[in-house]
Amino acid sequence: MQRDEDAARSVGVHLDTGRTILAGVGLYRSWLKHGANDVPLLDDEEGVLAIMLNRAIALADARRG
Q1: What Rg, from alpha-carbon coordinates, does the chain have?
Q2: Could you report the average pLDDT of every consecutive run of 10 residues in the chain (65 residues)?
Q3: How far apart are CA 61 and CA 56, in angstroms?
Q4: Is 19 helix (H, G, I), strand (E, B) or coil?
Q5: Contact 57, 29 (CB under 8 A)
């Protein structure tokens, strides 16, 4: 199943990579997208509308390794 990135919210631009971080809701979970990386969001911790850029960058960096 493909995500509808047109319906995703732009959280902001990653300060190190210059790529836009998107937040959206999928069939089974909320997610962040940073380049080719998908990061799951746990709905009880942070939501698509509530997540801020600093938290999104931290999650994207943790996923990158």
Answers
A1: 11
A2: 69 96 89 91 74 93 80
A3: 9
A4: coil
A5: no
